[in-house]
């Protein structure tokens, strides 16, 4: 792994003795903080920037290179903050601009960079621009996508597009016009053909870059440009094809020109500021388009997240992902969970089996070449919460599907920090109940008890992330598969690291694998032979050929 440079301090200009660019993102471990569920500093039951600041030391000790904060902007919270009503401010429930400044400075002081979310595809319906559009002020509707309807009296939507959250992607106003919202009706899509929209977002980015953030996770980065003439998709169930087939509202070629202009903006700042694309293109090759040298630095690799637990599917997705990003010289990212997906302990079977597999997945993932994203709580082995009562659910998916899909709240339950305390240390003593209830049996999985247990999930992550930082074979570079028994994955990283994963149901005997560095479950070894139990991964140090 290449030497890492020290993170820049809060001020944008680097010290004169700053090391040459490290391209730090190529092998960074980046930790996703879902702000409202991470840590509650002010006692209102909702996570906030003060809470994040109070836990930065925990993240530095975990060994991550950067954090990504989900939206903390003022928002009516129709979609967990991805409905932004003001882009240059902090939601008063989550803190102040000064808190944001302090957070950036403190993270930098601990050697971590800070990425923030930017939401350019849509605003909140409470954004002043949309209020002006509703009043039909001159030019205001040009900033969004307004169209007359079809059919008699224009009573049918302008086309057949479906919202990602269920139902049509169009809503009609009392004056008869329709507006587009690929997500909730409270998230009207912006019109990126309008230069005013482009100028506004460049300005917003400058605002945050000037504060010192190290880059942006770009929400729906494949959605800003729609197919010319807004043609029908021609079929229903469109979102089932997300990431699998072309759709007229995602992954249009025009988005790349916008991303190129953002790359120029990022590059005009010192300190290696980056952009990360949240995209669901129909193929790895289309994904690679977003990380061409003059576009963004990284794109989330959701194909890896979506792969089944099995040697065949995982090997196939690893190869396809690396091949695609290699073509454009970009790093691959490895993502197991995020705030939109069922947590992977649960996806991998839940209970002891899911936990065991998730531990093995941690070592597999952290051994792959490229950059790794960790979703808060993943390092604690938290499962999806499947039994949240209806009355606490907040995700628009739950409401827009009339409860048929319970939505994503189960992956957003607040983090347990301390075993025995009320709210498990998520909030200060005497605080309001947390915005989503924390399961009563999460005390055992809280941070403090796990820190004291050398075999805990948390200590597995801490050891793996730390080893990844110091071992010269890990991080960026290449990998080589070795022949291995069915339902296993063995690969080397040079110099001198072997990763072995047993995804099958039977133990596998390894002959002279080397010196054990780290294993996800107990390992029986007599020096020459070792037994790799089912759903177990191990890292070995060995002399390179
Ligand atoms: C992706 C975000 O991760 C998700 O939470 C949000 O609902 C949509 N984009 C819409 O902004």
TrEMBL record:
<feature type="compositionally biased region" description="Pro residues">
    <location>
        <begin position="11"/>
        <end position="21"/>
    </location>
</feature>
<keyword id="KW-0326">Glycosidase</keyword>
<feature type="compositionally biased region" description="Low complexity">
    <location>
        <begin position="1"/>
        <end position="10"/>
    </location>
</feature>
<feature type="region of interest" description="Disordered">
    <location>
        <begin position="1"/>
        <end position="21"/>
    </location>
</feature>
<comment type="similarity">
    <text>Belongs to the glycosyl hydrolase 13 family.</text>
</comment>
<dbReference type="InterPro" id="IPR017853">
    <property type="entry name" value="GH"/>
</dbReference>
<dbReference type="InterPro" id="IPR006047">
    <property type="entry name" value="GH13_cat_dom"/>
</dbReference>
<dbReference type="Pfam" id="PF00128">
    <property type="entry name" value="Alpha-amylase"/>
</dbReference>
<dbReference type="InterPro" id="IPR045857">
    <property type="entry name" value="O16G_dom_2"/>
</dbReference>
<dbReference type="GO" id="GO:0004558">
    <property type="term" value="F:alpha-1,4-glucosidase activity"/>
</dbReference>
<feature type="domain" description="Glycosyl hydrolase family 13 catalytic">
    <location>
        <begin position="32"/>
        <end position="412"/>
    </location>
</feature>
<protein>
    <submittedName>
        <fullName>Alpha-glucosidase</fullName>
        <ecNumber>3.2.1.20</ecNumber>
    </submittedName>
</protein>
<keyword id="KW-0378">Hydrolase</keyword>
